[in-house]
Amino acid sequence: MAHRGARPERHRAIALRAERRPPRELSQTEMKTLVDACDRLRDKFLLSLLKGTGLRIGEALGLRHEDLATRRRLVAVRPRANVNRARAKTWSREVPADTGLFRLYSDYLHDEYGPLDCDYVFVNLWSSPVGAPMGYSSVDRLVRRLRDRTGTAFSPHLFRHSRSICPRA
């Protein structure tokens, strides 16, 4: 007769979490230097948006004009299918933004965006296909240019960890 406890019992291994280091942050000076190093209003607006709201780059690239409530000074983040494959990783939410950010948005629309007929806020303006939603590869090229120009090692996600809290006033 076989003994019931003869087989070794399986147990889950206990996983110990490694100590997490806090993510690197950009200083206010580094963020200002990066924004100032942008040649185009679109790029200044993109980095300023990341800096002031803490949005992820996919959330920013998926923004539509209807998502920016200028009078209420809110940016709506909505998960949706985007042709540029940008995506919001989390739920819908509204993020406060300061007046200066919306002023920069207005300047960008007036001076660079012009009469384009596209729902997306961030679009290709100087490379093909002009008027198409800006993709991750365009952001990657911008980041590489700014790294070379400023000597600052950064990724767009660092703005999320370094964001400046903007007052609602």
Q: What descriptive keywords fit this protein?
A:
6 helices, 3 strands, three-stranded antiparallel sheet, disordered C terminus, 169 residues, mainly alpha, single chain
The geometry reads as: globular
**SSE order, one letter for each helix or strand:** HHHEEEHHH
Cα separation of the termini: 81 Å
So how many helices? 6
Structural class: mainly alpha
Radius of gyration equals: 22 Å
Weakly predicted, low-confidence segments: 165-169
Sheet with the most strands, sense and barrel status: 3 strands, antiparallel
**Going across the major beta sheet, what is the strand order?**
1-2-3
Q: How many beta-strand elements?
A: 3
Give the fraction of residues assigned to helices: 25-40%
- Beta-strand percentage range: 5-15%
Mean pLDDT: 88
Helix and strand arrangement:
Blueprint (H helix, E strand, L loop, with lengths): L27 H9 L4 H13 L3 H5 L6 E2 L4 E4 L15 E4 L2 H15 L22 H15 L5 H7 L7
Antiparallel strand pairs: 1-2, 2-3
Descriptive overview:
- By secondary structure, the protein is mainly alpha-helical.
- 38% of the residues lie in helices and 6% in strands.
- The chain is built from 6 helices and 3 strands, in the order αααβββααα.
- Helix 1 (28-36) packs antiparallel against helix 2 (41-53) and helix 2 (41-53) crosses helix 6.
- The longest helix has 15 residues, at 99-113.
- The termini are far apart.
